[in-house]
Protein backbone atom coordinates (compact mmCIF):
# COMPACT_ATOMS: atom_id res chain seq x y z
CA UNK A 1 0.00 0.00 0.00
CA UNK A 2 1.43 3.38 -1.00
CA UNK A 3 -0.05 6.71 0.11
CA UNK A 4 -3.52 5.25 0.66
CA UNK A 5 -6.16 7.79 1.66
CA UNK A 6 -9.94 7.94 1.83
CA UNK A 7 -12.53 10.60 2.67
CA UNK A 8 -16.30 10.43 3.15
CA UNK A 9 -18.33 13.64 2.65
CA UNK A 10 -15.27 15.74 3.42
CA UNK A 11 -14.30 13.73 6.51
CA UNK A 12 -10.80 12.24 6.21
CA UNK A 13 -10.80 8.58 7.28
CA UNK A 14 -7.33 7.59 5.99
CA UNK A 15 -4.38 9.72 5.01
CA UNK A 16 -1.06 8.72 3.43
CA UNK A 17 -0.93 5.14 4.72
CA UNK A 18 2.05 3.12 3.45
CA UNK A 19 2.36 -0.53 4.47
CA UNK A 20 4.11 -3.66 3.27
CA UNK A 21 2.93 -7.21 3.95
CA UNK A 22 5.21 -10.21 3.47
CA UNK A 23 4.44 -13.84 2.69
CA UNK A 24 4.32 -16.05 5.77
CA UNK A 25 3.88 -13.28 8.34
CA UNK A 26 1.11 -12.00 10.57
CA UNK A 27 0.82 -8.24 10.58
CA UNK A 28 -1.30 -7.00 13.48
CA UNK A 29 -3.36 -3.93 12.61
CA UNK A 30 -4.67 -2.08 15.62
CA UNK A 31 -5.99 1.29 16.70
CA UNK A 32 -9.08 2.89 18.21
CA UNK A 33 -12.53 2.50 16.65
CA UNK A 34 -12.72 5.07 13.88
CA UNK A 35 -8.95 5.03 13.36
CA UNK A 36 -9.42 3.61 9.85
CA UNK A 37 -8.63 -0.11 10.28
CA UNK A 38 -11.79 -1.44 8.64
CA UNK A 39 -11.63 1.06 5.79
CA UNK A 40 -8.02 0.12 5.06
CA UNK A 41 -8.95 -3.58 5.10
CA UNK A 42 -11.91 -3.01 2.78
CA UNK A 43 -9.70 -1.15 0.29
CA UNK A 44 -7.29 -4.08 0.22
CA UNK A 45 -10.14 -6.56 -0.31
CA UNK A 46 -12.01 -4.70 -3.06
CA UNK A 47 -14.95 -3.50 -0.96
CA UNK A 48 -13.93 0.16 -1.41
CA UNK A 49 -12.72 1.19 -4.86
CA UNK A 50 -12.59 4.99 -4.80
CA UNK A 51 -9.45 5.92 -2.82
CA UNK A 52 -6.18 7.78 -3.11
CA UNK A 53 -2.83 6.02 -3.50
CA UNK A 54 -2.00 2.64 -5.01
CA UNK A 55 -1.86 -1.08 -4.21
CA UNK A 56 0.63 -3.65 -5.47
CA UNK A 57 0.42 -7.45 -5.30
CA UNK A 58 3.64 -9.36 -6.00
CA UNK A 59 5.13 -6.21 -7.54
CA UNK A 60 2.28 -5.63 -10.01
CA UNK A 61 -0.50 -3.05 -9.81
CA UNK A 62 -3.47 -4.43 -7.90
CA UNK A 63 -6.82 -2.74 -8.53
CA UNK A 64 -9.62 -5.00 -7.25
CA UNK A 65 -12.97 -3.95 -8.73
CA UNK A 66 -15.01 -5.94 -6.19
CA UNK A 67 -14.70 -8.43 -3.37
CA UNK A 68 -15.10 -11.28 -5.87
CA UNK A 69 -12.30 -9.80 -7.98
CA UNK A 70 -10.00 -9.61 -4.93
CA UNK A 71 -10.84 -13.20 -4.00
CA UNK A 72 -9.99 -14.31 -7.55
CA UNK A 73 -6.48 -12.94 -6.84
CA UNK A 74 -6.34 -14.85 -3.54
CA UNK A 75 -7.09 -11.86 -1.30
CA UNK A 76 -9.85 -12.75 1.17
CA UNK A 77 -11.40 -11.12 4.24
CA UNK A 78 -13.27 -12.41 7.28
CA UNK A 79 -15.32 -9.40 8.29
CA UNK A 80 -16.27 -8.47 11.83
CA UNK A 81 -19.95 -8.36 10.86
CA UNK A 82 -21.11 -11.77 9.68
CA UNK A 83 -21.90 -12.23 6.00
CA UNK A 84 -23.67 -15.57 6.21
CA UNK A 85 -27.13 -16.26 4.76
CA UNK A 86 -29.17 -17.48 7.76
CA UNK A 87 -31.77 -19.42 5.76
CA UNK A 88 -29.14 -21.58 4.03
CA UNK A 89 -27.35 -24.52 5.61
CA UNK A 90 -23.81 -24.45 6.95
CA UNK A 91 -22.63 -26.45 3.91
CA UNK A 92 -24.34 -24.11 1.44
CA UNK A 93 -22.80 -21.05 3.10
CA UNK A 94 -19.32 -22.59 3.08
CA UNK A 95 -19.48 -23.45 -0.64
CA UNK A 96 -21.81 -20.73 -1.89
CA UNK A 97 -19.49 -19.49 -4.65
CA UNK A 98 -18.38 -22.97 -5.75
CA UNK A 99 -21.29 -25.38 -5.21
CA UNK A 100 -20.45 -28.71 -6.92
CA UNK A 101 -23.05 -29.98 -9.37
CA UNK A 102 -23.75 -32.69 -11.90
CA UNK A 103 -25.19 -31.45 -15.17
CA UNK A 104 -26.71 -28.46 -13.42
CA UNK A 105 -28.06 -30.37 -10.41
CA UNK A 106 -26.49 -29.77 -7.00
CA UNK A 107 -24.38 -32.69 -5.76
CA UNK A 108 -25.56 -32.70 -2.15
CA UNK A 109 -23.35 -35.57 -1.02
CA UNK A 110 -20.29 -33.81 -2.44
CA UNK A 111 -21.39 -30.54 -0.82
CA UNK A 112 -21.64 -32.23 2.59
CA UNK A 113 -18.28 -33.96 2.17
CA UNK A 114 -16.45 -30.75 1.22
CA UNK A 115 -18.17 -28.86 4.02
CA UNK A 116 -17.05 -31.42 6.60
CA UNK A 117 -13.46 -31.08 5.36
CA UNK A 118 -13.69 -27.29 5.63
CA UNK A 119 -15.18 -27.43 9.13
CA UNK A 120 -12.58 -29.95 10.29
CA UNK A 121 -9.82 -27.45 9.49
CA UNK A 122 -10.85 -25.39 12.51
CA UNK A 123 -12.09 -28.19 14.74
CA UNK A 124 -15.82 -27.87 14.02
CA UNK A 125 -16.42 -31.60 13.57
CA UNK A 126 -19.47 -31.42 15.86
CA UNK A 127 -21.50 -29.18 13.54
CA UNK A 128 -23.90 -30.88 11.13
CA UNK A 129 -23.35 -29.36 7.65
CA UNK A 130 -27.11 -29.60 7.03
CA UNK A 131 -27.93 -27.29 9.96
CA UNK A 132 -29.43 -23.93 8.93
CA UNK A 133 -27.05 -21.15 9.96
CA UNK A 134 -29.89 -19.35 11.79
CA UNK A 135 -29.92 -22.18 14.36
CA UNK A 136 -26.28 -21.67 15.33
CA UNK A 137 -25.06 -19.43 18.11
CA UNK A 138 -23.16 -16.27 17.22
CA UNK A 139 -19.81 -17.83 18.15
CA UNK A 140 -20.45 -20.85 15.92
CA UNK A 141 -21.56 -18.58 13.07
CA UNK A 142 -18.27 -16.68 13.42
CA UNK A 143 -16.33 -19.95 13.12
CA UNK A 144 -18.30 -20.89 9.99
CA UNK A 145 -17.46 -17.48 8.51
CA UNK A 146 -13.78 -18.12 9.23
CA UNK A 147 -13.93 -21.64 7.80
CA UNK A 148 -15.44 -20.27 4.58
CA UNK A 149 -12.35 -18.16 3.98
CA UNK A 150 -9.67 -20.70 4.91
CA UNK A 151 -9.24 -21.94 1.36
CA UNK A 152 -6.19 -23.42 -0.34
CA UNK A 153 -5.93 -20.60 -2.91
CA UNK A 154 -5.71 -17.85 -0.31
CA UNK A 155 -2.58 -15.68 -0.61
CA UNK A 156 -3.57 -12.73 1.58
CA UNK A 157 -6.08 -13.15 4.42
CA UNK A 158 -7.54 -10.27 6.44
CA UNK A 159 -9.10 -11.26 9.78
CA UNK A 160 -11.17 -8.42 11.26
CA UNK A 161 -11.76 -9.05 14.99
CA UNK A 162 -12.05 -12.81 14.38
CA UNK A 163 -12.14 -13.89 18.05
CA UNK A 164 -14.67 -11.37 19.39
CA UNK A 165 -17.36 -14.07 19.74
CA UNK A 166 -15.25 -17.21 20.18
CA UNK A 167 -14.63 -19.47 23.16
CA UNK A 168 -11.04 -20.13 24.33
CA UNK A 169 -11.07 -23.56 22.64
CA UNK A 170 -12.28 -22.06 19.34
CA UNK A 171 -9.59 -19.38 19.55
CA UNK A 172 -6.92 -22.05 19.94
CA UNK A 173 -8.22 -23.86 16.84
CA UNK A 174 -8.08 -20.59 14.91
CA UNK A 175 -4.51 -19.88 16.02
CA UNK A 176 -3.48 -23.37 14.90
CA UNK A 177 -4.89 -22.65 11.46
CA UNK A 178 -3.10 -19.30 11.32
CA UNK A 179 0.19 -21.08 12.07
CA UNK A 180 -0.46 -23.58 9.26
CA UNK A 181 -1.30 -20.80 6.81
CA UNK A 182 1.86 -18.92 7.74
CA UNK A 183 3.85 -22.08 7.02
CA UNK A 184 2.21 -22.21 3.55
CA UNK A 185 3.33 -18.64 2.85
CA UNK A 186 -0.01 -16.90 3.32
CA UNK A 187 0.26 -13.25 4.34
CA UNK A 188 -2.17 -12.42 7.16
CA UNK A 189 -3.50 -9.08 8.41
CA UNK A 190 -4.93 -9.57 11.90
CA UNK A 191 -7.18 -6.71 13.05
CA UNK A 192 -7.87 -6.83 16.78
CA UNK A 193 -8.22 -4.85 20.00
CA UNK A 194 -7.18 -7.85 22.11
CA UNK A 195 -3.57 -6.96 22.65
CA UNK A 196 -2.73 -10.19 24.47
CA UNK A 197 -3.67 -12.08 21.28
CA UNK A 198 -1.45 -9.89 19.13
CA UNK A 199 1.51 -10.65 21.37
CA UNK A 200 0.90 -14.37 20.85
CA UNK A 201 0.60 -14.57 17.07
CA UNK A 202 1.82 -11.37 15.38
CA UNK A 203 5.24 -10.86 13.81
CA UNK A 204 4.81 -7.10 13.36
CA UNK A 205 2.28 -4.54 14.52
CA UNK A 206 0.97 -1.44 12.75
CA UNK A 207 -0.88 1.23 14.74
CA UNK A 208 -3.41 3.63 13.20
CA UNK A 209 -4.61 6.78 14.94
CA UNK A 210 -7.08 9.21 13.38
CA UNK A 211 -6.49 7.73 9.93
CA UNK A 212 -2.70 8.00 10.04
CA UNK A 213 -0.11 5.28 10.45
CA UNK A 214 1.71 6.27 13.66
CA UNK A 215 3.87 3.21 14.26
CA UNK A 216 5.09 -0.04 12.64
CA UNK A 217 7.42 -2.28 14.62
CA UNK A 218 8.34 -5.88 15.39
CA UNK A 219 5.90 -7.39 17.89
CA UNK A 220 8.51 -9.17 19.96
CA UNK A 221 9.25 -7.30 23.16
CA UNK A 222 6.47 -4.73 22.74
CA UNK A 223 4.62 -4.07 26.00
CA UNK A 224 0.84 -3.80 26.07
CA UNK A 225 0.87 -0.35 27.66
CA UNK A 226 3.12 0.93 24.85
CA UNK A 227 0.59 -0.09 22.21
CA UNK A 228 -2.29 1.40 24.18
CA UNK A 229 -0.50 4.74 24.48
CA UNK A 230 0.31 4.77 20.75
CA UNK A 231 -3.33 3.96 19.92
CA UNK A 232 -4.99 6.61 22.07
CA UNK A 233 -2.19 9.17 22.43
CA UNK A 234 -2.28 9.16 26.24
CA UNK A 235 -1.97 6.86 29.26
CA UNK A 236 -5.07 4.75 30.03
CA UNK A 237 -5.88 3.93 33.65
CA UNK A 238 -5.67 0.28 34.73
CA UNK A 239 -8.56 -0.94 36.93
CA UNK A 240 -7.10 -4.30 37.97
CA UNK A 241 -6.35 -3.34 41.56
CA UNK A 242 -9.55 -1.48 42.41
CA UNK A 243 -11.18 -1.97 45.81
CA UNK A 244 -14.64 -3.46 46.24
CA UNK A 245 -17.39 -0.85 45.97
CA UNK A 246 -19.81 -0.25 48.81
CA UNK A 247 -22.96 -2.30 48.22
CA UNK A 248 -26.26 -0.48 48.62
CA UNK A 249 -29.88 -1.63 48.71
CA UNK A 250 -31.15 -4.51 46.62
CA UNK A 251 -32.66 -3.24 43.33
CA UNK A 252 -33.55 -6.46 41.48
CA UNK A 253 -34.18 -10.02 42.64
CA UNK A 254 -34.75 -13.08 40.46
CA UNK A 255 -35.90 -16.37 41.94
CA UNK A 256 -36.07 -19.74 40.20
CA UNK A 257 -35.99 -18.44 36.63
CA UNK A 258 -36.35 -21.19 34.08
CA UNK A 259 -36.70 -21.39 30.31
CA UNK A 260 -36.14 -24.73 28.60
CA UNK A 261 -32.57 -26.04 28.68
CA UNK A 262 -31.11 -22.53 28.40
CA UNK A 263 -31.91 -21.20 31.89
CA UNK A 264 -32.40 -23.68 34.74
CA UNK A 265 -33.64 -22.48 38.13
CA UNK A 266 -31.42 -19.38 38.34
CA UNK A 267 -31.66 -17.02 41.32
CA UNK A 268 -29.64 -13.85 41.80
CA UNK A 269 -29.76 -10.37 43.36
CA UNK A 270 -28.48 -7.07 41.98
CA UNK A 271 -27.56 -4.26 44.37
CA UNK A 272 -27.23 -0.51 44.01
CA UNK A 273 -23.67 0.74 43.72
CA UNK A 274 -22.04 -2.45 42.45
CA UNK A 275 -21.33 -4.31 39.24
CA UNK A 276 -22.07 -8.03 39.16
CA UNK A 277 -20.29 -9.88 36.37
CA UNK A 278 -21.60 -12.93 34.55
CA UNK A 279 -19.02 -15.29 33.05
CA UNK A 280 -19.37 -18.58 31.20
CA UNK A 281 -18.70 -20.26 27.88
CA UNK A 282 -20.68 -19.55 24.73
CA UNK A 283 -24.00 -21.41 25.11
CA UNK A 284 -23.89 -21.42 28.91
CA UNK A 285 -27.11 -19.40 29.17
CA UNK A 286 -25.75 -15.93 29.95
CA UNK A 287 -27.56 -14.08 27.17
CA UNK A 288 -30.73 -16.12 27.66
CA UNK A 289 -30.78 -15.15 31.35
CA UNK A 290 -30.33 -11.48 30.52
CA UNK A 291 -33.18 -11.66 28.00
CA UNK A 292 -35.47 -13.10 30.69
CA UNK A 293 -34.50 -10.30 33.09
CA UNK A 294 -35.44 -7.75 30.41
CA UNK A 295 -38.66 -9.42 29.29
CA UNK A 296 -37.42 -10.12 25.77
CA UNK A 297 -38.31 -13.79 26.47
CA UNK A 298 -40.98 -15.09 28.85
CA UNK A 299 -39.86 -17.30 31.73
CA UNK A 300 -41.56 -20.68 32.13
CA UNK A 301 -41.13 -20.39 35.89
CA UNK A 302 -39.76 -18.01 38.49
CA UNK A 303 -40.27 -14.39 39.52
CA UNK A 304 -38.48 -11.07 39.10
CA UNK A 305 -38.90 -8.34 41.72
CA UNK A 306 -37.88 -4.70 41.58
CA UNK A 307 -37.08 -2.60 44.65
CA UNK A 308 -36.99 1.15 45.21
CA UNK A 309 -34.06 3.20 46.48
CA UNK A 310 -34.93 2.18 50.05
CA UNK A 311 -34.91 -1.53 49.27
CA UNK A 312 -38.71 -1.83 49.44
CA UNK A 313 -40.59 -3.88 46.80
CA UNK A 314 -42.20 -1.69 44.17
CA UNK A 315 -45.93 -2.35 43.98
CA UNK A 316 -46.11 -0.90 40.46
CA UNK A 317 -43.66 -3.45 39.00
CA UNK A 318 -45.03 -6.81 37.87
CA UNK A 319 -43.08 -9.88 39.06
CA UNK A 320 -43.16 -11.27 35.51
CA UNK A 321 -42.44 -8.95 32.59
CA UNK A 322 -44.77 -9.39 29.65
CA UNK A 323 -42.47 -7.44 27.34
CA UNK A 324 -39.41 -5.16 27.39
CA UNK A 325 -41.84 -2.22 27.68
CA UNK A 326 -42.76 -3.35 31.19
CA UNK A 327 -39.09 -3.80 32.09
CA UNK A 328 -38.27 -0.28 30.87
CA UNK A 329 -41.22 1.13 32.84
CA UNK A 330 -39.78 -0.61 35.93
CA UNK A 331 -36.40 1.06 35.34
CA UNK A 332 -34.50 -1.79 33.66
CA UNK A 333 -32.36 -1.20 30.55
CA UNK A 334 -30.46 -3.59 28.27
CA UNK A 335 -27.38 -3.15 26.10
CA UNK A 336 -27.76 -6.15 23.78
CA UNK A 337 -25.02 -8.57 22.72
CA UNK A 338 -25.55 -7.76 19.02
CA UNK A 339 -25.93 -4.01 18.68
CA UNK A 340 -26.57 -4.07 14.94
CA UNK A 341 -29.45 -6.55 14.78
CA UNK A 342 -30.97 -5.96 18.23
CA UNK A 343 -29.74 -2.68 19.66
CA UNK A 344 -29.86 0.01 16.97
CA UNK A 345 -32.04 1.36 14.18
CA UNK A 346 -29.16 1.47 11.72
CA UNK A 347 -30.65 3.76 9.04
CA UNK A 348 -31.77 6.26 11.68
CA UNK A 349 -29.72 9.10 13.12
CA UNK A 350 -27.79 9.35 16.37
CA UNK A 351 -30.55 11.70 17.52
CA UNK A 352 -33.33 9.15 17.01
CA UNK A 353 -31.38 6.23 18.50
CA UNK A 354 -30.33 8.18 21.58
CA UNK A 355 -33.87 9.17 22.61
CA UNK A 356 -35.61 5.96 21.47
CA UNK A 357 -36.26 4.48 24.95
CA UNK A 358 -37.32 7.81 26.49
CA UNK A 359 -39.24 9.69 23.82
CA UNK A 360 -41.58 11.12 26.43
CA UNK A 361 -38.79 13.35 27.67
CA UNK A 362 -38.41 15.00 24.26
CA UNK A 363 -42.11 15.27 23.43
CA UNK A 364 -44.71 17.92 24.06
CA UNK A 365 -48.46 17.21 23.94
CA UNK A 366 -47.69 13.90 22.24
CA UNK A 367 -45.48 15.42 19.53
CA UNK A 368 -41.75 14.75 19.29
CA UNK A 369 -39.66 17.93 19.51
CA UNK A 370 -36.80 17.49 17.04
CA UNK A 371 -34.88 20.44 18.46
CA UNK A 372 -35.05 19.01 21.97
CA UNK A 373 -34.01 15.60 20.64
CA UNK A 374 -31.01 17.20 18.94
CA UNK A 375 -29.94 18.98 22.12
CA UNK A 376 -30.08 15.72 24.08
CA UNK A 377 -28.13 13.81 21.42
CA UNK A 378 -25.44 16.51 21.15
CA UNK A 379 -24.95 16.51 24.92
CA UNK A 380 -24.31 12.75 24.88
CA UNK A 381 -22.07 13.02 21.82
CA UNK A 382 -19.91 15.43 23.82
CA UNK A 383 -19.97 13.50 27.10
CA UNK A 384 -19.26 10.09 25.55
CA UNK A 385 -16.86 11.45 22.92
CA UNK A 386 -18.82 9.93 20.04
CA UNK A 387 -16.91 10.55 16.81
CA UNK A 388 -19.48 11.88 14.36
CA UNK A 389 -20.18 14.70 11.96
CA UNK A 390 -23.45 15.68 13.66
CA UNK A 391 -26.40 14.31 15.61
CA UNK A 392 -28.11 13.67 12.26
CA UNK A 393 -25.49 11.19 11.08
CA UNK A 394 -26.90 7.68 10.51
CA UNK A 395 -25.55 5.23 13.09
CA UNK A 396 -24.86 2.72 10.29
CA UNK A 397 -21.96 4.95 9.20
CA UNK A 398 -20.30 5.02 12.65
CA UNK A 399 -17.53 2.69 13.78
CA UNK A 400 -18.44 -0.17 16.12
CA UNK A 401 -17.20 1.58 19.24
CA UNK A 402 -19.14 4.74 18.48
CA UNK A 403 -22.27 2.73 17.75
CA UNK A 404 -21.92 1.12 21.16
CA UNK A 405 -21.63 4.54 22.78
CA UNK A 406 -24.94 5.52 21.16
CA UNK A 407 -26.58 2.45 22.75
CA UNK A 408 -25.14 3.49 26.14
CA UNK A 409 -26.39 7.04 25.61
CA UNK A 410 -29.95 5.73 25.13
CA UNK A 411 -30.07 4.12 28.57
CA UNK A 412 -28.25 6.98 30.24
CA UNK A 413 -30.88 9.32 28.79
CA UNK A 414 -33.75 7.10 29.96
CA UNK A 415 -32.38 6.71 32.82
CA UNK A 416 -32.53 3.24 34.45
CA UNK A 417 -31.98 1.97 37.97
CA UNK A 418 -30.85 -1.46 36.70
CA UNK A 419 -28.57 -1.82 33.66
CA UNK A 420 -28.05 -5.17 31.95
CA UNK A 421 -24.90 -5.07 29.80
CA UNK A 422 -24.41 -8.05 27.46
CA UNK A 423 -20.86 -8.03 26.03
CA UNK A 424 -20.76 -4.20 26.26
CA UNK A 425 -17.22 -3.85 24.88
CA UNK A 426 -17.28 -6.51 22.12
CA UNK A 427 -15.44 -5.13 19.09
CA UNK A 428 -14.58 -1.92 20.97
CA UNK A 429 -11.05 -0.52 21.08
CA UNK A 430 -9.15 0.30 24.27
CA UNK A 431 -9.87 4.04 24.06
CA UNK A 432 -13.63 3.65 23.61
CA UNK A 433 -13.56 0.85 26.16
CA UNK A 434 -12.03 3.19 28.73
CA UNK A 435 -14.82 5.72 28.02
CA UNK A 436 -17.47 3.03 28.56
CA UNK A 437 -15.77 1.86 31.76
CA UNK A 438 -15.87 5.45 33.04
CA UNK A 439 -19.61 5.58 32.36
CA UNK A 440 -20.11 2.28 34.18
CA UNK A 441 -18.20 3.68 37.16
CA UNK A 442 -20.44 6.75 37.03
CA UNK A 443 -23.55 4.55 36.94
CA UNK A 444 -22.66 2.73 40.13
CA UNK A 445 -21.54 5.98 41.78
CA UNK A 446 -25.12 7.15 41.13
CA UNK A 447 -26.29 3.98 42.96
CA UNK A 448 -27.47 2.07 39.94
CA UNK A 449 -27.22 -1.72 39.82
CA UNK A 450 -25.29 -3.19 36.89
CA UNK A 451 -25.13 -6.76 35.56
CA UNK A 452 -22.28 -7.20 33.09
CA UNK A 453 -21.92 -10.23 30.79
CA UNK A 454 -18.49 -10.66 29.21
CA UNK A 455 -16.39 -13.38 27.62
CA UNK A 456 -13.27 -11.46 28.69
CA UNK A 457 -12.37 -12.66 32.18
CA UNK A 458 -9.76 -9.93 32.58
CA UNK A 459 -12.45 -7.35 31.94
CA UNK A 460 -14.78 -8.87 34.53
CA UNK A 461 -11.98 -9.14 37.08
CA UNK A 462 -11.09 -5.49 36.55
CA UNK A 463 -14.60 -4.04 36.68
CA UNK A 464 -16.79 -6.24 38.88
CA UNK A 465 -17.47 -6.53 42.60
CA UNK A 466 -18.97 -10.01 42.25
CA UNK A 467 -18.73 -12.53 39.41
CA UNK A 468 -21.29 -15.26 38.82
CA UNK A 469 -20.44 -18.14 36.50
CA UNK A 470 -22.96 -19.88 34.24
CA UNK A 471 -22.64 -23.47 33.01
CA UNK A 472 -25.30 -25.49 31.20
CA UNK A 473 -28.01 -22.95 31.98
CA UNK A 474 -27.28 -22.89 35.72
CA UNK A 475 -25.53 -20.38 37.95
CA UNK A 476 -22.85 -22.68 39.36
CA UNK A 477 -20.70 -20.24 41.37
CA UNK A 478 -20.60 -16.68 42.68
CA UNK A 479 -17.27 -15.12 43.68
CA UNK A 480 -16.73 -11.94 45.69
CA UNK A 481 -13.94 -9.52 44.74
CA UNK A 482 -10.74 -10.80 46.32
CA UNK A 483 -11.90 -14.44 46.23
CA UNK A 484 -11.49 -15.28 42.57
CA UNK A 485 -8.59 -16.22 40.36
CA UNK A 486 -8.75 -16.63 36.60
CA UNK A 487 -8.21 -20.37 37.04
CA UNK A 488 -11.17 -20.65 39.44
CA UNK A 489 -13.45 -18.75 37.06
CA UNK A 490 -12.44 -20.99 34.15
CA UNK A 491 -12.89 -24.13 36.24
CA UNK A 492 -16.42 -23.03 37.19
CA UNK A 493 -17.22 -22.20 33.56
CA UNK A 494 -16.30 -25.77 32.64
CA UNK A 495 -18.65 -27.24 35.24
CA UNK A 496 -17.66 -26.80 38.89
CA UNK A 497 -20.86 -26.57 40.94
CA UNK A 498 -21.81 -23.94 43.49
CA UNK A 499 -21.70 -26.61 46.22
CA UNK A 500 -18.14 -27.56 45.23
CA UNK A 501 -17.16 -23.90 45.37
CA UNK A 502 -18.65 -23.54 48.86
CA UNK A 503 -16.88 -26.70 50.07
CA UNK A 504 -13.55 -25.29 48.85
CA UNK A 505 -14.21 -22.05 50.74
CA UNK A 506 -15.24 -23.77 53.98
CA UNK A 507 -12.50 -24.13 56.64
CA UNK A 508 -11.18 -27.61 57.29
CA UNK A 509 -12.67 -29.37 60.35
Automatic annotation (TrEMBL):
Annotated membrane topology: Peripheral membrane protein
InterPro entries to which the protein is assigned, alphabetical: AAA+_ATPase, ABC_carbohydrate_import_ATPase, ABC_transporter-like_ATP-bd, ABC_transporter-like_CS, P-loop_NTPase
GO cellular component: plasma membrane
CDD domains found in the cross-reference section: ABC_Carb_Monos_I, ABC_Carb_Monos_II
Compartmental location: Cell membrane
Domain annotation ABC transporter: ranges: 1-235, 246-497
Main location: membrane
Protein name, UniProt field: Sugar ABC transporter ATP-binding protein
Keywords (A to Z) from UniProt: ATP-binding, Cell inner membrane, Cell membrane, Membrane, Nucleotide-binding, Repeat, Sugar transport, Translocase, Transport
Native source species: Diaphorobacter ruginosibacter
GO molecular function terms listed in the Swiss-Prot or TrEMBL record: ATP binding; ATP hydrolysis activity
Gene3D superfamilies, A to Z: P-loop containing nucleotide triphosphate hydrolases
Amino acid sequence: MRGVGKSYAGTVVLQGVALELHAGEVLALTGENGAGKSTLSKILCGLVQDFDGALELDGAAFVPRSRRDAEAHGVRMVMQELGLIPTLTVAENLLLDRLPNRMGWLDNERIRSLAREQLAKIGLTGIDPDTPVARLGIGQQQMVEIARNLQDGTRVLVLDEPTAMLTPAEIEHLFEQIALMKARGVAIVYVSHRLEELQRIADRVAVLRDGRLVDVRAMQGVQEHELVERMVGHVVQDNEGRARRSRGERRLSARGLRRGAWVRDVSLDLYAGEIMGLAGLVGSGRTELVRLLFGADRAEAGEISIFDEHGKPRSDASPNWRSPVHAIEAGVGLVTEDRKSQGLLLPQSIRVNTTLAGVGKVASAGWLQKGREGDVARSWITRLRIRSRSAEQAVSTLSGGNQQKVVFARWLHQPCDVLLLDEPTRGVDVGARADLYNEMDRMVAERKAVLMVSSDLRELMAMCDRIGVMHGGSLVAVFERGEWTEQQLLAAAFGNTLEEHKRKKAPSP
